[in-house]
C-alpha cells in the first residue's frame, strides 16, 4: 500500500514539474495570499483571537522591478470584517531565498446577541509593481482575494478563561516557480533518486516510533490533568458556573480522547463531522468506542453552543471516560510494539 502511494505521489510530482514549465511560459501571478488557520475556532462574546494571512511574493530584482504591497490599504479601519471587529494589525516580514513571506495578523473580536456559526469575510490584498529604485509604478492596482474562515460564536457561559479545544497545527503550503527547462530535468532525476532511497528505508515524512511514543505520552499527560481538574470540580458544591465549566472540561476531554485514534485533520472538525467520520469506520470494538466518545462530545458541544447547561453526572461520565482512556492507552501500547 505504501509503495503504491509513493508511486502515485511521484507521478503527481512529475506532472506538477511539467506543469511548471508550461506555466513559466505564461504570465503567472508573482504574489499569492494564503489564509492561515485562526488561533481558535470557538469564541465567546468579546474574546480576541488572531487571523493570519500569509502574503508570498517573488523577488523581481533580476527584472529591475519590485512588488509593493499597499499596506496602508490593509489597515483594520480600511477593511470590512463584519460581523467581526478588527482591533489591531501586526505585520511580520521574512525572506526565504527568492521569495518574501509577509504575515498580516489581525486581532479580531465579535460582540453580537445572535449565537451561531459566523464567517470571517473574504478580503482583498492590493499590490502594484514598480521599477526598482524608482517611483514609477504600474497604473493598474492588482488584487488577490483571500478565503473565508468559519468561526463558532457562543455566549459567555462561565467566568473562567476561554478554553481553546483546538490544537493548532500549521501544515503550510508552497508556491513553485520555474527557472529554466534544464532545472526541470535535474529535479525529476533527483526526485526519482529520492523515491528509490525512501523505499529502502522508512519514509522521512513519518515520525519515528520514538517520536510517536513521545507525542502520545504528551497527550496522555494533558488528558490526566483534565481528569484531575474535573475530579476537583466534582468535589465542590454544584453551581451554574461550575456546571458550565464542567461541560467545557468534559468537551475538551472527549475531544482529546478522540484525537488519540483519529487523524490530525479531524482536529479542525465539528462534533457532527467527527460523528460522520466515525460512522464510516469498519465495525468493531474500536468503532463502538470512538462512536461513544463522539456522541458525548457532540452532546457537550451542543450544550456549550446553546448556553443551556444540563446537570452533568460528573462521577458517572468521568468513570466512563477513565475506562475508555485505559482502553486507548492499551491500544496505543499494542501499536507501539507492533
N→C terminal distance = 17 Å
- Mean of all residue-level pLDDT scores: 77
Question: Whole-number radius of gyration?
Answer: 25 Å
Specify the CATH class of the largest domain: Mainly Beta
The number of helices is 7
Give the number of DSSP strands: 10
Spatial ordering of strands, largest sheet: 1-3-6-5
Percent helix range: 40-55%
CATH topology value of the largest domain: Immunoglobulin-like
Q: What coarse outline follows from CA principal-axis ratios?
A: flat
List the helices and strands and how they pair.
Blueprint lengths: L1 H23 L6 E5 L6 E3 L4 E10 L6 E5 L15 E12 L2 E11 L6 E5 L3 E8 L10 E4 L3 E6 L26 H20 L8 H27 L4 H19 L12 H9 L5 H22 L7 H24 L1
Parallel strand pairs: 2-10
Antiparallel strand pairs: 1-3, 3-6, 4-8, 5-6, 7-10, 8-9
Helix pairs in contact: 1-2, 3-4, 3-7, 4-6, 4-7, 5-6
Keywords:
single chain; 338 residues; alpha+beta; Immunoglobulin-like; four-stranded antiparallel β-sheet; three-stranded mixed β-sheet; 7 helices; 10 strands; flat
Amino acid at each position: 500500500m505504501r509503495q503504491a502511494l509513493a508511486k502515485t505521489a511521484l507521478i503527481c510530482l512529475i506532472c506538477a514539474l511539467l506543469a511548471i514549465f508550461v506555466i513559466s511560459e505564461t504570465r503567472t501571478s508573482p504574489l499569492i495570499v494564503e489564509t492561515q488557520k485562526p488561533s481558535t475556532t470557538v469564541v465567546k462574546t468579546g474574546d480576541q483571537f488572531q487571523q493570519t494571512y500569509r502574503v508570498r511574493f517573488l523577488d523581481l530584482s533580476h527584472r529591475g522591478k519590485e512588488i509593493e504591497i499597499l499596506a496602508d490599504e490593509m489597515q483594520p479601519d480600511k477593511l470590512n470584517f463584519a460581523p467581526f471587529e478588527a482591533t489591531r494589525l501586526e505585520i511580520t516580514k521574512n525572506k526565504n531565498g527568492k521569495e518574501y513571506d509577509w504575515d498580516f495578523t489581525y486581532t479580531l473580536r465579535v460582540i453580537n446577541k445572535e449565537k451561531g456559526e459566523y464567517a470571517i469575510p473574504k478580503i482583498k490584498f492590493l499590490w502594484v509593481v514598480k521599477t526598482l529604485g524608482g517611483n514609477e509604478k504600474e497604473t493598474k492596482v492588482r488584487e488577490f482575494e483571500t478565503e473565508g474562515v468559519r468561526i463558532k460564536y457562543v455566549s459567555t457561559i462561565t467566568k473562567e478563561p476561554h478554553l481553546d479545544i483546538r490544537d493548532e497545527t500549521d501544515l503550510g503550503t508552497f508556491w513553485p516557480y520555474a527557472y529554466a527547462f534544464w532545472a526541470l530535468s535535474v529535479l525529476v532525476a533527483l526526485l526519482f533518486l529520492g523515491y528509490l532511497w525512501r523505499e529502502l528505508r522508512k519514509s522521512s515524512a513519518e515520525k519515528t516510533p520514538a517520536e510517536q511514543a513521545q507525542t502520545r505520552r504528551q497527550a496522555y499527560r494533558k488528558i490526566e490533568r483534565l481528569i484531575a481538574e474535573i475530579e476537583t470540580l466534582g468535589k465542590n458544591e454544584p453551581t451554574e458556573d461550575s456546571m458550565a465549566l464542567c461541560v467545557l472540561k468534559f468537551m475538551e476531554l472527549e475531544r482529546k480522547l478522540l484525537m488519540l485514534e483519529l487523524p490530525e485533520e479531524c482536529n479542525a472538525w465539528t462534533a457532527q463531522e467527527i460523528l460522520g467520520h466515525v460512522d464510516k469506520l469498519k465495525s468493531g470494538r474500536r468503532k463502538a468506542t470512538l462512536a461513544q466518545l463522539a456522541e458525548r462530545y457532540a452532546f457537550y458541544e451542543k450544550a456549550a453552543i446553546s448556553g443551556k447547561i444540563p446537570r452533568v453526572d460528573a462521577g458517572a461520565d468521568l468513570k466512563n471516560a477513565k475506562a475508555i482512556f485505559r482502553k486507548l492507552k492499551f491500544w496505543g501500547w499494542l501499536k507501539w510494539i507492533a
